[in-house]
Specification:
Elements: E1 3-7, H1 14-25, E2 28-31, H2 32-41, H3 45-56, H4 62-73, E3 82-85, H5 91-103, E4 110-115, H6 118-128, H7 135-149, H8 151-158, E5 162-166, H9 171-183
Parallel strand pairs: 1-3, 1-4, 2-3, 4-5
The structure holds adenosine-5'-diphosphate.
């Protein structure tokens, strides 16, 4: 059983890898980006609030995201394991996650950091063409990643949980390395 946290800049492929691994290992894939996009599409209260930030490439306020993750982690289908993809995204969220995991009496096993050079990230995001993938938003999301999310690499390294993977390789090669790394 695995409980994993995926870290990586936008375009690093963490969503793709998390979805594949979750399917192969039959564990839950909890993507905060996907949950938020669904809330926006459904025009829920959360979605209406989140859209404003997402369209600008900013982080959605911590409390909104935390409530959403808490609800998800309390559901029964996550008991067999999970991958958190896109959360935590800053140190405050990582600290909240530690409390939340205590609340549900679970611990995370490893934190996977997908490393990809910036120029490749921008190419991939422009090619993907999601609604929030225009040049200005991409630039802002990369900045937010560097300022707020990248410090989590040291945060988890200090806890002895960090495993780094080269995300610049073809999708199937990254998946193969990922499986080796989480089994080791
Ligand atoms: P990407 O990794 O390509 O930026 P995601 O699908 O993970 O895309 O997230 C899309 C957007 O959703 C982010 O730009 C941000 O506005 C919002 N978001 C997702 N997860 C979080 C989070 N943990 N905290 C705050 N905002 C988030």
């Amino acid at each position: 059983m695995a409980r994993l946290i995926f870290l990586g800049p936008p375009g690093s492929g963490k969503g793709t890898q998390a979805a594949q691994l979750a399917q192969d290992e039959q564990i839950s894939h909890i993507s905060t980006g996907e949950l938020l996009r669904k809330a926006v599409a459904d025009k829920t209260d959360l979605g209406v609030k989140a859209k404003y930030y997402m369209d600008k490439g900013e982080l959605v306020p911590d409390q909104l995201v935390l409530d959403m993750v808490r609800e998800r982690l309390h559901k029964l289908d996550v008991q067999s394991g999970w991958i958190l993809d896109g959360f935590p995204r800053n140190v405050a969220q990582a600290e909240s996650l530690e409390n939340l995991l205590k609340e549900v009496a679970q611990v995370s096993d490893s934190v996977i950091s997908l490393e990809v050079p910036d120029d490749l990230l921008v190419d991939r995001l422009l090619a993907r063409g999601r609604k929030d993938d225009n040049e200005e938003t991409i630039r802002r999301r990369l900045e937010v990643y560097r300022e707020q999310t990248a410090p989590l690499i040291d945060f988890y390294r200090a806890r002895g949980q960090l495993k780094s993977i080269d995300g610049a390789q073809p999708i199937s090669s990254v998946t193969a390395v990922l499986k080796q790394v989480i089994c080791s």
